[in-house]
Design brief:
The protein is an alpha+beta fold. It has five helices and four strands, in the order E-E-E-H-H-H-E-H-H.
């Protein structure tokens, strides 16, 4: 989970604390809190769920506080609390790429460059297949 502290990381969905780190023009690392983990369920009243609730919508503060607050640092470092993994657009057929774009309401021609298009394709795959990215099973 050290990728979360990489200065090149971006938050693609602040409300869900979804992060993206470009690895290459084809490959992207994604992560977001594992909403399937019992500790992160809103009714669990765990320290972990309280931390999550505090930072939903405020990813910059989460990353800043992780530098100085041991509880937040532990939250970020605990792989079991996150869904994460790399997605490489080169593993998809052209048809699959177009379908993933279409699922987001985009067409191939909507992008000026391949990197932005590739990132959206990978992001949609990540979001559509959460079980492939769970670290707790």
């Amino acid at each position: 989970m050290e990728n979360l502290l990489n200065p090149n990381i971006t938050c693609t969905d602040p409300d869900n604390l979804q992060f993206c780190l470009p690895i290459s023009e084809y490959e992207f690392w994604y992560c977001e809190p594992n909403g399937y983990n019992d500790l992160l369920l809103s009714d669990s009243n765990s320290n972990e769920s309280q931390i999550l609730e505090k930072y939903l919508g405020n990813p910059k503060q989460l990353l800043e506080d992780a530098k100085i607050d041991e509880a937040v640092k532990s939250f970020i470092a605990n792989r079991l609390l996150w869904m994460s993994g790399e997605v490489d657009v080169r593993y998809f057929t052209q048809k699959e790429k177009e379908e993933l774009l279409s699922d987001y309401g985009y067409s191939w021609e909507d992008f000026d460059n391949d990197i932005e298009r590739n990132q959206i394709i990978c992001e949609n795959y990540f979001e559509s297949n959460p079980m492939d990215f769970r670290n707790d099973i």
